[in-house]
Amino acid sequence: MRSLILNLFLFLLIQSLLSGCKTKQQLPDPLAAGWKNEKVCELLEDNKHLRVLKCTFEPGVGHERHYHSLHFGYALSGGTFRIKDQNGVREVKLVTGSHFFSEGTEWHEVLNIGDSTAVYLIFEPK
Q: Is 40 exposed, middle or buried (CB count within 10 Å of its CB: 0-12, 13-18, 19+)?
């Protein structure tokens, strides 16, 4: 019995130490994230089924590092973005009227490198 209690104690101690080593960074969601202390997304709808954001990026404006849950996006006005994420850096053209689906994004940073204002909607099911 004493051996069992000692093993249980050691197991809990090791679990506690290992969980204390995790350094998972807490990132904002797209609504909370902004650009240079300014909001880029506004809340259009928030109910028990869905949250809808409208995000606007003038040329030279970005979106600081944030995460996304599962979502669908629709471009009201397209633009050219530089996107940085865990896979590296790439440029993406978002065409007006285009749409996309994402299972979620652990993190990314976005910058409008084009010469036009880009606006898109993000639909997040709950």
A: buried
